[in-house]
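Build the 3D complex.
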Amino acid sequence: MNHIQNFTKGFIKENPVFVLLLGMCPTLGTTTSSINGLGMGLATAFVLTMSNLVVSLVKNQIPDKVRIPSFIVIIATFVTIVELLMQAFTPTLFYQLGLFIPLIVVNCIVLGRAEAFASKNTVGSSVLDGFGMGLGFAFALTILGSVRELLGSGAIFGIHLMKGDMMLVFVLAPGAFIALGYIIAIINKLNKTA
Amino acid sequence: MASKKESTFAHMVVTLFLVALIAALALGSVYVVTKKPIALAKKKKQEAAIKAVLPAFDKITVKKFPDADGVDSLQFNIAFRNGKMIGVAVNTYTNKGFGGRIEAMVGLLDDGTIYNTSVLSLKETPGLGTKLEKKKSNFPDQFIGKNPATFKLKVKKDGGNVDAITAATISSRAFCDALQRAYDTFEKEKDKLK
Amino acid sequence: MNMLTVSASPHIHGDYLTKKLMYGVVYSLVPAMLVSLYFFGFNALRVLLLSVFFSLLFEWLIQKYLIKGPISITDGSAIVTGILLAFNVPSNLPASMIIVGALVAIGIAKMSFGGLGKNIFNPALVARVFLLISFPVEMTSWPKPLGFTKNLSDVITGPTPLGFVKDGISSGRNISELAAHMPSYIQDLLGQTGGSLGEVSAITLIIGGIYLIWKKIISWEIPISILLTVVVFSGILWIIDPQQYADPVFQLLTGGLMLGAIFMATDMVTSPMTKGGQLVFGFGVGLLTILIRVWGAYPEGVSFAILLMNAVVPLINRGFKPKRFGTKPCLITLT
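Done.
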């Protein structure tokens, strides 16, 4: 697999949300609007890239039996850094995402890439993999957030296309499941025909 | 991988110790860097909330008073302009909301007239109780410029002067309760403010 | 396809065709339909026609262009879904919302799962809950039944009896204070109360239910166990504190309980197969209904209760398998 593939596979072919179905908790919980989805996705992308970088750097120094706790500490460190930075510089987004920022630690996709890819590959490809996967995650969350915001409140990125609310159910939890289900169905259909 | 460290006890302890140490150092330094911006962002948030409910001021002093029914205490942000008290922004609350606690900020002028209100946090039903928020409906506008001494803070159904939100009487009632609590406490503690 | 796998003989020929069953349900809904026309006038007709027409249209469109399979809109199931959806909404609901409801019922709740017989949840109820959450204002402003005489644009809305009681108790009043403003039981029975199209008149729904049981389209287990559970459970609460909890008769006659118990919970696709399972299912629906009505956020809980129990039907079916003939005395007979 070459570098370009390492980077691009995260978008559609191995998209963490739409194809691998990893990290469902923040996916369903934070995508009430496009901006929330994008913010959450970028925060995760940052953590994913940095943790892949560090894990692939230190992979040979870490004994096998303690690799998971070490990975988790590394990931948790980056998550806390993101949390502090967001609290300082994007407070509005921070209060909207709230609990879901610290929960990036337990996002399967982050540990999954560290364990499945970064601990077995070179630094360069790990960073590309993490960045690609992270952008794929951000892409998926933004799409889902946009669909939910459009159907739920008739707006995209906070710009109202029509007055008043639309189908509120899409802003709530059941709408997240319905929207995600149909997006996955469409992606499957596209992957099959492609 | 030949170069990988073996999982001996000493290796594991040393590795975990080092990982934790580096993580702690990284977090510590980020914390020091972001401490000031975070405090600033928090202060700005509170100030913006006060500004939204009171006319222009140049100084704020904060006092706490037990509320009228003596269960909790309310924070009074007393605003001064040129050394003269012009009003109070009261952090008030109610537990009678449809989804529990609603926190609001009420700006009262020195004679008790409501200057403006804003909702700080609520857990009401989306599309119904969330209309308490300014950007969602004009329900809160009806309180502007009213003095609770003459304007009865009760929904019309209960014999008051407030137009309730359609299909959200409970939320409307709760909001009135929060305003009444702020006003009652204000009336009781009026002399201690100046 | 294993349609040709059959068990050993003897077999009895059953006359249960989908079409026959579905049109039977339609006939049984006629009395309730007439009452809703009488009380809500042209608006009721408008809601009914829109709902049925768009249910059929979406079923046809999806079968023709998305599934590309055989078209089965004449089997009557979409008509039943359309009527039941109409029965679950207030008569002044805007047309766009009825269309959304029909799309949700047919598209999301039925066709996404593979069509008739494969859906987990009752389509009409999924649509109702979807609409209730999406458009809370429109779905909870119930026009008063005024009949044909009044001007269409001048609809007076008021709470349902259940909503009235819930609101009253939450603002600290007790039942006897509220009773003066509530419709009498006779009014509840006949349908002279605020509410959705099909839930207002208990008596016509009971007539429809008796017809269905007589024609053996539904079995008595589900409706009776739901109603019995509601009576017993709300009766216990009522005995504990008659000022705080409404009495069992009120609980029986108001809201969508009759409609849900007789027409929605008994949907063959989404209810358990064996008699024992049906009793458990009914008990669950009854219990959840009262729990939601008394302590829940919404005044009415039948639709949520049925959907929640729909979700556990596969589990119930697993627990109540029919015994194989010969292994043990056969206690559960199949209809």
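DSSP finds 16 helices and two strands in chain C.
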